[in-house]
Specification:
homodimer; 120 residues; mainly alpha; two-stranded antiparallel sheet; 2 strands; globular; DNA-binding
DNA sequence: AAAAGTGTTATATAAAATATATAACACCCT
DNA sequence: AGGGTGTTATATATTTTATATAACACTTTT
């Protein structure tokens, strides 16, 4: 899996990377137990600093998507994280609010959900 | 409608306010054409700086949720904003990726969508 | 055993984003 | 005339983001 940073985006680099890794795990480009690239190699490959990659990995660890040991960052999704679901639902509410106001109807949203789930 | 800032949150104040206003518009606590509180009054009410409220209003204007004139910020949703839908869908993909990995099944997501749409 | 590769920590620096504070301006409405 | 709009300008402080070097303890490979 190749990750890519949009240097013109207003989204923080570590955040772009973090989201791309979550997408990669969800779409099974990375499987449970698989080791992500080392911070040094990945930072060279995508052209950002080692510490920025490390920050993405650290956040992924804190949010329960990877486990980090001496071998590197290992995909290890931890379903049981108390506040996670509530947080996701709150964010979902805001996105749907934006979607409705932008004219995305309920049926369209359901279709969208199905399309995305089919990818995963 | 009373807005509230969580001063302990790591989310920017203007962002919290922006999202709450979008939710208020979606749930029809504010109707098309209605005038939002003035930047000065709202800033006093919720305890943040005038310019921070102004930034929220400016972003809301740029994203097509309000129109700003001499009377103040007026709710005016502009459906036709080219890249908006794509942006929303991209964000939705990430949230659903997180949701699936946290064990939220497709059916649960559909139920969630319906629940939120019913509020709107 | 030596070398190379892990994440991690520390220190430093620079730029950008966030938030506040004062002040003033043009405009509108009573 | 006075008080209410958003807006603009300037200034300052803090936090976040990103980079750069360097070193450390540990593991894996050679």
């Amino acid at each position: 899996m190749i990750f890519e940073i949009d240097f013109n985006s207003d989204e923080a680099f570590y955040m772009q990377l973090k989201n791309q890794i979550i997408l990669a795990i969800a779409t099974r480009s990375y499987l449970e137990g698989e080791v992500l690239p080392s911070v040094r190699k990945l930072s060279e490959d995508i052209g950002i600093n080692m510490h920025t990659v490390n920050k993405a990995y650290t956040v992924l660890k804190d949010e329960g998507f990877v486990r980090v040991d001496r071998r590197g960052a290992v995909v290890a999704v931890d379903i049981n994280k108390a506040e996670d679901k509530k947080l996701i639902i709150d964010e979902l509410k805001i996105i749907i609010a934006r979607a409705t106001l932008k004219g995305i109807k309920r049926e369209e949203m359901h279709a969208l959900i199905d399309a995305i789930y089919d990818e995963y």
